[in-house]
Every structure is written in C-alpha cells, then in structure tokens.
Write a structure and sequence with these properties.
Length: about 250
Amino acid sequence: MSEFKDWYYSVPFFTRYWLSCTIILSLIGRFGIIHYHNFVLDFYPFIYQFRIWRPLTALFFYPIGPGTGFHFLINCYFLYNYSQRLETGIFAGKPADYFYMLLFNWTCCVVIGLLVNLPILMDPMVLSVLYVWCQLNKDVIVSFWFGTRFKAMYLPWVLLAFNLVLSGGGMMELLGILIGHVAFFLLFKYPQEFGGPALLTPPAFLKQFFPDTRYIGGFGTAPQARVAERPAGGAVFGRHNWGRGHTLGGN
C-alpha cells in the first residue's frame, strides 16, 4: 500500500487529480451510485436548469461498459503519460501556466460540445494535451501497435486514422487535434515566430494561487523564435501511447 501511495503522490499535481477525478467519477456512473445522465454535457439542463456542474463532470466522466472499457483505459494511459510529460517538462515549475492551458482547452471543448451536442469531453481533451506534447517533441520516436515506430508529430494523426478504421469514428480525435493546435499556436508559435502577444499568459491571481517553483524538468522544448536575417543593404525586414518516446540518435 505504501508503494502505491508513494507512486500516487509522485504524479504531478494536475495530472494526479485529473486522472483521479476521471477514474472516480467514471466508476460512480458505472455502478449507478449517481445516474450518469447527471454527468454528461447537455445544453438544455445546463442553460435552462442551471446545472452548472455538467461541463466539469463531462470532462471527468466516461461511460465504462463492455464496448468502451478498453478505450477508457487507453485514454487514462494517454492522460497520465502525456499530461505528466508536459507538466514535468516544458511547464515544469510553472503550474499556473499549465493549468491555464488546460483551462483553455477545456473551455474550447465545452463550447464545441454545446454547439455540436457532444456529451463526453474526455476524448478531445486528452487528445489536445497529447497533440501539444507531440508538437513540442516532433522528432521523438514513439512506438505503436505491432512494433511500429514513427515520429511523435504523427501520433495524433495515427490515432485519428486508427479510430476511423476500427470504429468508423474520428470526430473526437479531430476536435482534440484542432483544440491542441490552437493552444500550441497561441502558446508558442504566435508569440515566438510571429512576434505577437502571449495570449495564453495566466492572470496574476492564478500565479499567486499556483506560484512558480524552482523545479526544473526537461521533456520537450518550445519552438525557437525566428532570427531576422540582415539583407546585403543593411536593412532588417520582417520575420516571419503507446510506449515510451526517445529521440533520434540513441536516447
């Protein structure tokens, strides 16, 4: 029991409680302790009956059954693996920044879910976090089923194609990729490569609530800003899963 406790508290804060709430709420719905209809995102009860908890429970709840149990476990693995890597990597020592990215992704999931009648948000939310990690670690080699190996930048699209072939779905993965791409663009691409403002900088009160620490991680690096080239005339013009990952070259 002590080993489990040590492992549990070694998981980074946001990943730990995201995974815990997901498992607990899904099991509550699975065993009928609370009817699962109270957890899903539904426009009418959310807007007209003021059931304001539904956007949050729709993130944590997943309907576990004979046909969905394996998919739920895979989602939990992706959540644990890639959220942890982000939280201890590029966001190490910056909990407010990571929480703000999660909050942005979740808000996008809720808005899209209400517009397209999407009752469960776990799939797109997990895929959005996985996508951000994959973009930060494009050249890391990841392993998939049957020993296939490829660069991490292709993993979200492989998952999309895999689900499309097996179940005829893919919409959840596509939404997760879209949301993750928007988050990655606003966090890194827009401010660093296009010189725009940092639109996903957490507000001061979040920094006070989740202050920066001195912890230094190191899995994934932010894209480097483009360096403006000086033309001959001297003027400067505008700048324009499955398994562990490891970098090319032997890590």
